[in-house]
Design goal:
The protein is α/β, with parallel strands linked by helices. It has three domains: 57 residues, Orthogonal Bundle (434 Repressor (Amino-terminal Domain)), CATH 1.10.260; 124 residues, Response regulator (Rossmann fold); 131 residues, 3-Layer(aba) Sandwich (Rossmann fold). A six-stranded parallel sheet has the order 2-1-3-4-5-11, sandwiched between helices. It has a six-stranded mixed sheet with strand order 7-6-8-9-10-12, sandwiched between helices. Helix 1 packs across helix 3 and helix 7 runs parallel beside helix 8. The longest helix has 17 residues. The radius of gyration is 25 Å and the shape is elongated.
């Protein structure tokens, strides 16, 4: 049989069912018994049938396309989220259209175009609260937010447990005996920045220490901002023995600035980052960091979005994904000191 000409009726004949039943199986309809579904799937495999995408969309009333809107498509974190989303979507018979909006002004018309044109069945929106773009989210259209702190009024969302991530970093440094711990944050308006600040301060307070506002400097996620933060502290002659940077790039910039000023990492100052970018194990020294699985965030976001498409009446679900401490060579016992108290884990 010519596989390019195999039709849904050929599959129906092979499985001994109607072509309507085959259509229901292809579109994951619930009104099909497991036995019938298995027969149809076996016939599809045996014949090598490939459903026509346009016909499938028409029959199901869907495009089987999802759109993922990121602030940009070059950032490692965003790209990793999109990669995970694309993989999960393909497994479910969908594909992901990746696009970007650098700011609120470009986000609003992009969403309007995607929704009004009916090009996609649902939206994945990364970092919707970094600016006012959350105000332009459609209210009667499937949306999942990625990298957003759960809010009672928000649709489904997926995010790293950023407060717990910061606690892991601080607990590690405290266990090494450090008490003067500086922090370079991300942009102050972002959810992850705020939650990591909360985790930083809470962990210090739990250890009986008072956070020093002078040792907290805002960065912009770039390595350059890590350099600038360290230069600021050194110019102010503010003492610290450890540094928590809220992402790996700022951590690498900080290490460079410390070395240029004559400090050794970790002999003089320990450094912890966040992300576990692929090259962090090859930095000099290899970077201790908090691993967040960005691809998993994308996969879970797609799972939630398809769940919403199939069951629109479900209550919103807000996932907080765990972080993992990866200990490498950029952290060590405080110089001339003893290790501190052990922590059971993020609290």
């Amino acid at each position: 049989m010519n596989r390019s000409r195999i039709t849904i009726r050929d599959v129906a004949a092979q499985a001994g069912v109607s072509h309507q039943t085959v259509s229901r199986v292809l579109n994951a309809h619930e009104r099909v018994t497991p036995e019938t579904r298995a027969r149809v799937e076996a016939a599809i495999a045996a014949l090598g049938y490939r459903p026509n995408a346009s016909a499938r969309s028409l029959a199901a009333g869907r495009t089987f396309a999802l759109a993922c809107i990121a602030p940009n498509l070059t950032d490692y974190t965003f790209a990793s989220i999109i990669e995970g989303a694309q993989a999960a979507a393909r497994e479910q018979g969908y594909f992901v259209l990746s696009t970007s909006a650098a700011d609120e002004a470009s986000f609003a018309p992009l969403v309007e175009e995607l929704v009004s044109s009916q090009r996609v069945d649902g939206l994945l929106v990364i970092n919707p609260y970094a600016d006012g773009r959350h105000q332009h989210l459609p209210t009667h259209f499937p949306v999942v937010l990625v990298g957003a702190r759960p809010r009672p009024e928000a649709p489904d969302s997926v995010a790293l447990d950023d407060e717990a991530a910061a606690r892991l970093a601080l607990q590690h440094l405290l266990e090494l005996g450090h008490r003067q711990i500086a922090m370079i944050t991300g942009p102050a308006n972002e959810d992850c920045t705020k939650d990591r600040i909360t985790g930083y301060a809470a962990t210090l307070c739990t250890a009986g220490l008072t956070p020093n506002p002078a040792l907290v400097v805002e960065g912009d996620w770039s390595a350059t901002s890590g350099v600038v933060a360290v230069q600021h502290w050194l110019a102010q002659q503010l003492p610290f023995t450890a540094l928590f940077a809220q992402n790996d790039r700022m951590a690498i910039g900080a290490i460079r600035a410390l070395r240029e000023a004559g400090y050794q990492v970790p002999a003089d100052i320990s450094v912890v980052g966040v992300d576990d970018m692929p090259l962090t194990a090859y930095f000099d020294p290899p970077l201790t960091t908090i691993r967040q699985d960005m691809a998993l965030s994308g996969r879970e976001a797609v799972r939630l979005l398809i769940r919403r498409l199939e069951n629109p009446a479900l209550e919103p679900q807000h996932l907080r994904l765990p972080a993992q401490l990866i200990i490498r060579s950029s952290t060590a016992l405080v110089k001339g000191g003893e290790s501190g108290p052990k922590f059971a884990g993020p609290g």
